[in-house]
Amino acid sequence: MWSRNNAVPALAAAAGLLVCASIALIFFWIPEDADQGISQKIFYFHVPIALTAYACFGWGALKAFLHLWRRPPGADLESYVAIHQGVIFGALTLITGSIWARASWGVWWAWSSEQLVLFLVLFLFYSAYFMLRFSVEPGPARANLCAVYALFGVVLIPISFLAIRLANDFIHPTVFTSQGPQMAGSMFFTFCVAWAAILTLAAALYHIELAGKRLDVSLRELRERLA
Amino acid sequence: MSGYLRDVALLTRKDVLLELRARDAVPALLLFVVSALVVFHFALPADAAELAAKGMLWVAILFTALLGLGRAFQAERQQSMLDGLLLAPCDRSAIWLAKTLATIVFLGVAELVALPAFALFFSALDWETVAGIALANLGICAVGTLVAAMALASRARELLLPLLFLPLAIPIVVGGVGASVADDGGRYLGFLALYDAVFAIISWASFEYVVTE
Amino acid sequence: MTQGQYLAAAYLVVFAVVLAYMLIIGLKLVRLQREVGQIARLAAERDPAPEAGTERAPERQEIGVG
After folding, report:
1. A15, B63, B87, B91: least surrounded by Cβ within 10 Å?
2. Domain range for residue C54?
3. What ipTM describes this predicted complex?
């Protein structure tokens, strides 16, 4: 228990350092993109945030699977917190993606951007997860329902991606990718640092929220025992 | 395995018999889908393309299915029959499979009327659309039955079902509309089949956890 | 808006969301702190042994400070 709690300050410090390092790299080291200009720098946060959101959804589904399989105590809570993080980062992906679309294509929303559309679908799906969770009485039944729904989520991600790609063929026949040409070495390095920064940030927030939730649960138990 | 299939057949027969006696769902579905088509006629501008009408057909089918799924566990809820079913000595996934099959039957009956009505009101249907609808029925009912069982456990049943179901149904709409409007419908039919297979397997495997603690 | 302003807006949004998250966690901490105080009081009432009571009082204060 204590070793787990000690991970929080370490993670928070690492996240702070990495975020500072990546911002320094993005703004002072990487040259401006020749085609897209300065707005291309949104890429270094937008894409890592999107990948981190996938990681959170995956982690939540993994915990959900563990809950259904072995029923370790707390797996339900961990799955919920991971999905909560995923939704926060998913919403950030939608907002930053929308701003990027406006900066580079002149529109706030582009149905031809597969990443954005996929995140919209996932955002709706996982918002429904919260609706489900908060309209069922807490207990083992709710944990099961949420775990099954979380598992559906990770199956829905690739299926939706395929569907959106297929849909673009008949709705928008022209294909254009948001990433542009192949990344240069320095760009890739900056991207990796930014991704590591966002991932550690997500991990730190995950542990902080989890600690709070665990505290909440034990306080409630304590209160019931005293009352 | 034969015991499993017999359970499924018995449970499906029970649902179909209940429907034949009470006539709760199918007439409502029929009326709804035809009304929806009439509404869509007035919602579409006169010079709207034939393709737009095909898209509307998919919307009509999806919402008809949603209406049917909302009723799927009605009998179980009203007389707390679900607890009885769970006590029965059969595999829990058999309950899901039977309910899915019964829902497919009801939705299929509604479509038997809706598709000719669509051909009459809007335009003729090609075989890709019909095949797409048949495949989509499988996916809609497989996922929808599981999600309906989930919604049943919550306080906000009727409200929750569409919220849970529609994000999961977006790939079905993509596959179905693609099969009806694209030149190479085969690809989209393949996608629908993939969706059906994947989601049927995980729904079948996870139904037990939805209805038990 | 210029490209640079869009870039600044994107980064600001991320920053603001992380700050809002901290705010929510902070509010939650305040609530937990209050609950711990209540529970400590409950425990003190239930177990009114004189030594225990005097022992518990500074403990409670420590929780309030931390």
Report:
1. B87
2. 23-66
3. 0.91
| Chain B interface mutation, best of A68, A156, A157, A161, highest count of B Cβ atoms under 10 Å | A156
The two counts, helices (H) then strands (E), for chain C are: 2, 0
Please tell me whether residue B23 adopts helix, strand or coil conformation.
coil
Question: Based on the structure, what is the number of domains in chain C?
Answer: 1
Helical residues (DSSP H) of chain A, grouped into ranges? 2-24, 43-69, 75-105, 114-134, 140-171, 185-226
The rounded distance, in Å, linking the Cα atoms of B172 and C8 is: 39
Task: Indicate the SS3 state at residue B115.
Answer: helix
Count of positions (residues) in chain A: 227
Task: Give the Cβ contact number of residue A83 at 10 Å.
Answer: 26
Distance from CA of A54 to the nearest CA of B (A): 17
pTM of the prediction? 0.89
Evaluate whether residue C1 is within a structural domain. Answer: no
Q: Which residues of A touch C43 (CB under 8 A)?
A: 226
C10 in any annotated domain: no
State the nearest Cα–Cα gap between B213 and chain A, in angstroms.
Answer: 5
User: Which chains have 3+ CB pairs within 8 A of C?
Assistant: A
| Amino acid identity, position B125 | L
Residue from A62, A92, A71, A82 nearest A213 by CA: A82
pLDDT tens-place string over residues B133-173 = 999 999 999 999 999 999 988 888 788 999 999 999 999 99
C48/chain A closest Cα distance in angstroms: 13
